[in-house]
What does this fold into?
Amino acid sequence: MQDEHAAWLEHHRLAVAGRAAALDAGRSAEARHAAALLDDFVQRAGEAGLRPHTLTARSYDGRWTYQTRVRGWYLKANRSVAVGEDGEYYVLTVPASLRARFTGAEIAPSMPRLIVGAGGGDGETIPLEHLLHRRLEAGESWP
It folds into this structure.
C-alpha cells in the first residue's frame, strides 16, 4: 500500500512538473513574439517621426503620478502601459512613495503578453498587435 501511494505521488509530481514546463515554454514563446512586435513598433514609430516622451507612472491607488527615467510611447489612453525606446514593455503602476514624488519612480520592464490585460481581473483585454497598430495610426495626436 505504501509503495502504491509513493508511486502515485511520484507520478503526480512528474505530471505537475510537466505542465509547469509546458506553461513556461508557452509563456516564453509568447514573450518572444510580443517582443518582436514591440521592436517592430519602435522601428516604425521612428520612421513615422513619432517622438517618445518621458513616461509617468501612477500609484496603485491612482492618487499620485510620478516621473520616470524611461522614454517611450503610451499604448493605452489611460497611460497604464507603454513601450520604451528600448523596445521593452512597461506596466506603469507603482507603489505610492514620498521619495518617488521628488526623485521619480523606478520602473522595470515587464514580460510582454500578446493579450494586454490577460489575467488582470478587470475584464479589459486587447491584443497587443491591435494596440500597437492603433498607436501608430494615431500619430502625434495620441491622448
Summary: The chain has a mean pLDDT of 90. The longest strand covers residues 65-74.
